[in-house]
Amino acid sequence: MAKTLAVSPLAPANFPELPVIGGVDFAVAEAGVRYAGRTDVMLARLVPGSTVAGVFTRSATRSAPVLDCQEKLGGDQASGAAIIVNSGNSNAFTGRNGVDATRAVTTAVAATLDLPETRVFSSSTGVIGEPLPHDRITAKLDELKGALAPGGIAAAARAIMTTDTFPKGSAATVTLPGGTVQIAGIAKGSGMIAPDMATMLVYIFTDAKIGFDALQPMVSEISDSTFNCITVDSDTSTSDTLLMAATGASGVAVEAGNDAFRAALHKVMLDLAHQVVRDGEGATKFVEVNVTGAASDADARTHALAIANSPLVKTAIAGEDPNWGRIVMAIGKSGAAADRDLLTIRFGDVLVAENGWVSPEYREEQGAAVMKQPEIPINVTLGLGQGSATVWTCDLTHGYISINADYRS
Asked: What Gene Ontology cellular component terms go with this record (predicted)?
C-alpha cells in the first residue's frame, strides 16, 4: 500500500490545464505492481508517423527499459507507436529477468495495439533490485486499450508517481507561420534526483510535424539547461528517461532552427524540472544557485553543483541559518578554479561576503530574513572570467530521511 505523503509546501496551487494533443491517446490502470488502491500504469498510443526522441540516464547500472528505449530511437516512423510506464518497481538490477520482463511487456503492448515491437517504448520507476511482476501489467492491456482517450494526460501524470506528492504538468502554445502547435508534458520525480541527463521520468507531446534529426538534438540540448541543472540529493537514478513525441497531427512543420518552438519547449521543460525540485523529498525551500565570473561555464557549473549538493549548505537552508561559511567551503572543495580574495557572495540582494571576508555592511538579520523565504537565491561571483551557470535545488530536512528510510516498507 502506498504511503500518503503530505503535499510539498512548494507545490503549485493546481495541476495545470493541459491541451489535448492531436494524435495521442492516454489510459491508466490499477495493476498492483507495488501499490494498492491507486493507478500505477500509464499507456500512451501515438498515431502513425510520430517522431519519438529521448535522452536517458548515463548511469552505468541503468535499467533494462532504459537500454531498450535507447536502442529503439530513430526507427521507422511509418507505423504508430506506444509508451507504457509502470510505477512502484524500476525493473533495474534484475539481471536477465529485467530484459525478459521488458520484452514481455513491449511484445504484449505491440500485439494489443497492432504495432511493431520496435515502436513500443517502456519505462519503469520505483524500487531497485526486485523482479518486475510484468504479468500484472500485461493482464491490464485490454482494459487500457479500451480506455484510450485523447484527454487523459492528467490521469497519466498521477499514474507515474512514486514518492511524488503532486502530479507535474506543463504546456505551451506556439503560433508559427504555418499555424498553431501545442506542447504538453508530464513528469515524475522527487528523490534520487541529480543532473546526469533527465534525472526523472518525463513525457512530452506535441502536435507539430518535426523529424527525428531535428527533434533529437533539440531535446538533448534543452535537457542540458533544464533537467541537467537540477539536483535534490546528488543521486542519479538507474531509470531516468525523457521521451518526446511529435505526432504531426497539426500539419504544421517545424524545422531544426525554429527559435519560437525551441523557446516554448524550453519553457515546458524548465517548468517541469523546477516542479521536480519543488517536490524534492522533504523539501521546504526552493533554491536557485547562480554562479558568475568563473573561468569558464564548466567551472561555474562545477561550483554551482558543489553548493547545491552540499549537505551542510542544504541543512543550513533547512534551518534558515544564513551560514555563508558553508558556501565558501563548497566553492573551495569543488575542484574548479577559485580565488578566496576575489569571491563575492549574496543571499538574494544582500551582500554577505567580499574581498576574502564578510562584508563590513552585512548584518546577520539580513541574511536570516532571506533564509525565511520559501524561494532563496544564492548568488556567487568569482571574479575570474565570464563563465556562468544556474542550478536549482532544495533544502535537506528530516523529511528526506523519513521518506527514504521507509521507502521499501
From this structure: cytoplasm
